[in-house]
């Protein structure tokens, strides 16, 4: 099981049109221990997806280091599974081939891939849909395939970029429950990006609340709540009140900032 | 009476061509034009039958030679087309994928592309002589550019997120090209293949009129010199049929390979 560590991360974008530099992430350091479920919570544009992409290896920091399992991240790799906001499945491959795509890249034969995919297909409750093509799936089902694909690739580190944002409310609740159930059963380190306070509270073992741009970690909250989470309980709502207060404070700061610029 | 039922079903598609042929027959027999200038469909059919089966020598020296002529043209189309498809797809993928290939090769290709393939005929003849080669060269030129342009377009419009997903799963560049970029570009590549087969037939026939002494295009042009417009029309229809047949074969292949598109695009609706 691997832990994730981010140290002194700074990200500066060059705005070519205005000829200015934009400080997107300002000196972020945090670490996620093995088997923790960290929710990165913040407003849009705060750099939470950028941080996730850095852990995935799709983006590099202007300065600072990212390491997973003690090894520095230099690029995307099969030691970290990512679930994207859109399912991004290969439309020409049936469900089972999509889930086992990483094994194809590893040079494994069709029989082995088929066998390896089955437990993950069952896990995300897509039994019977093995041979369906992505175009024949609903949004929620497609996202399940995306999750199964990441799980098969690597159980120990799963990165999720608002994977349920495009789903309807009911499907979203179902998927959240299932994700937690899978995580509880199989463990693994999860970093989950979201802008929904409720989602973070339902899913996370920790929540990192980020500030508006430039992104910093405002507060790292360890959630001491029993599972399954009860969104009507007093403790749940106490956390929620606290986080909402932080967010309100942040957006007030953002407005003040915008007024002075 | 199954075929009658299906014929009834096809009635909507058939009545316009049937009406046209009947009108043409009546017009040709009416004497408004000398029958040699616009031969009646019945005459064309008889000549064509003789061209194919050598029945009554009405196609003179061509009697029974149809399959030979059709094969000669088809071989030229096939060889030129095959070379164009292989080179067009490979080069197109390379240009679409690697920026440096695009920078170094694309300007040259874009300068050659507007030159009509037909205008290469003089050079083709002095380079390759009078035989199969100039025709194959012209077919290649006609088919290459549509294949190339569509392959480039297909690669350039691949969803970046699919490439990211493959990179996330540990895909190396060569694997991403083979397992992601190529399949994702296939719908566009097939669109190019279908345009290209049309150009291929067009250029075979053109080459046969000018630079080759066999094939359907040669028969067509030769019959024109001998005022045999019935043979000219029979050759035109033969070329049309073969073009239709090859396009149908490509469509068949396409629906096999791109079966995953069914239900996803408008095209999949009709299958």
Overview of the structural elements:
- The complex is a heterodimer of chains A (261) and B (271).
- Chain A has 261 residues and is α/β, with parallel strands linked by helices.
- Chain A contains 8 helices and 10 strands.
- The model of chain A has no long low-confidence stretch (mean pLDDT 88).
- Chain B has 11 helices and no strands.
- The chains are: A alpha/beta (261), B mainly alpha (271).
- The A-B interface holds A 56, 58, 75-78, 80-82, 84, 86, 88-93, 101-102, 104-106, 133, 135-136, 149, 153 and B 159, 161-162, 164-172, 175, 179-180, 183-184, 186, 258, 260-264.
Task: Give a brief outline of the structure.
Chain A: GO terms for molecular function: aminopeptidase activity; ATP binding; ATP hydrolysis activity. By secondary structure, chain A is an alpha/beta fold.
- The overall average pLDDT of chain B, rounded, is 89
What do we call the CATH topology of the domain at 4-80 and 195-260 in chain A? Rossmann fold
SSE series of chain B: HHHHHHHHHHH
The poorly predicted ranges of chain B are none
Work out the helix count of chain B.
11
Biggest chain pair contact, residues each?
A: A-B, 27 and 24 residues
Please describe the topology of this protein.
The complex is a heterodimer of chains A (261) and B (271).
Chain A lengths: L3 E12 L4 E13 L4 E5 L6 H9 L6 E6 L2 E2 L8 E3 L11 H5 L1 H5 L4 H14 L15 H15 L3 E5 L7 H18 L2 E6 L2 H7 L2 E5 L6 E6 L11 H27 L1
Parallel strand pairs in A: 3-8, 3-9, 6-7, 7-8
Antiparallel strand pairs in A: 1-2, 1-4, 4-5, 9-10
Chain B lengths: L1 H8 L1 H19 L11 H13 L12 H32 L1 H14 L8 H8 L3 H25 L3 H9 L4 H38 L5 H10 L3 H29 L14
